[in-house]
Amino acid sequence: MSEMYTIHVDGNQLRFEPRQDGVLEDVLAQGSHLGGYDAVSRMGDPGLLHCAVFRRGEGHGGFFAIHDQDGLLFTAVAESNLAYALAQGFFGGMVSEARYGADIFENMDDPDEC
Asked: Which domain of life is it from (predicted)?
């Protein structure tokens, strides 16, 4: 069982609140597709940290499933379009920074070219 959160917008900040959602948890555990949601994109590096983005087909919001190389870490559900849009930027930055940081440390043994 992985962690699950609801994303709330608080001013210009995102707030993550623990969430219980047995249906979503079961679907994700089986690796199935959740009805009513469309896969939009995957951001990041599947070998390090990546985010699968799903948009509610009808209605507002969507959810984000964050994985590392070992599997699902957590899921965050946005109930509004504002939370969904802001969370895309948040998780896009998160996975980009993880890749950037890994690149720096993976290349520490290479001498800088001057």
From this structure: Bacteria
Predicted local distance difference test score (pLDDT) of residue 32: 66
- Residue 32 contacts residue 104 (beta carbons within 8 Å): no
Short-list 92, 89, 37, 102, CA closest to 63: 37
Q: What is the pTM of this model?
A: 0.84
3-state SS track over the chain: CCEEEEEEEECCEEEEEECCCHHHHHHHHHCCCCCCEEEEEEEEECCCEEEEEEEECCCCCEEEEEEECCEEEEEEEECCHHHHHHHHHHHHHHHHHHHHHHHHHHCCCCCCCC
pLDDT digits (tens, 9 = 90+) for 37-53: 899 999 999 888 999 99
Domain boundaries, the chain: 3-106
Q: Position 105: which residue type?
A: F
